[in-house]
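Input record, target 12 of the design panel.
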């Protein structure tokens, strides 16, 4: 499975202590050099910069052959979408709404960070209630009400019948 990622899944998963779910779910994850550079910027949390400085073997960095210009997207998002197209990725991890739409318009399957967390919970890799509680403590732009609703749906699916 080829999975390409933008920066936000790394920032959130590192911040909540669950970056280890990525290799367990997907084996390897590919990021464009622009995303690596974003994750190493001084305005990123120290834990994120430390993670990138000691890059694990499951995280691969690639330079996209060409980057398509898509209005309203930042360099990392543009590079991630372009690399996903180039590699014919099975999945692109991206949270930004315009980026998700641009990827979908190009027939690239997408998942956001919350989808990754939910998949990890489904596979028993983390506790969803705890993970969502940790997400709420970050500066990740997501409605707490949405997280509560997703947790209720998850809990309803898991109840014995």
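The sequence produced for target 12 reads:
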């Amino acid at each position: 499975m080829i999975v390409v990622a933008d920066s936000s899944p790394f920032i959130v998963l590192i911040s909540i202590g669950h970056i280890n779910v990525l290799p367990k779910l997907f084996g390897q994850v590919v990021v464009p050099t622009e995303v690596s550079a974003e994750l190493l910027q001084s305005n990123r949390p120290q834990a994120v910069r430390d993670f990138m400085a000691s890059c694990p073997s499951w995280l691969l960095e690639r330079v996209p052959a060409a980057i398509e210009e898509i209005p309203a997207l930042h360099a990392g998002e543009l590079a991630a979408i372009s690399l996903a197209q180039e590699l014919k990725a099975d999945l692109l991890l991206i949270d930004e709404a315009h980026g998700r739409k641009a990827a979908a318009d190009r027939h690239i399957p997408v998942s956001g960070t919350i989808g990754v967390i939910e998949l990890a919970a489904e596979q028993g890799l983390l506790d969803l209630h705890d993970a969502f509680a940790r997400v709420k403590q970050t500066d990740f732009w997501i409605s707490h009400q949405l997280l509560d609703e997703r947790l209720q749906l998850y809990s309803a699916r898991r109840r014995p019948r």
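The chain is about 55% helix and 10% strand.
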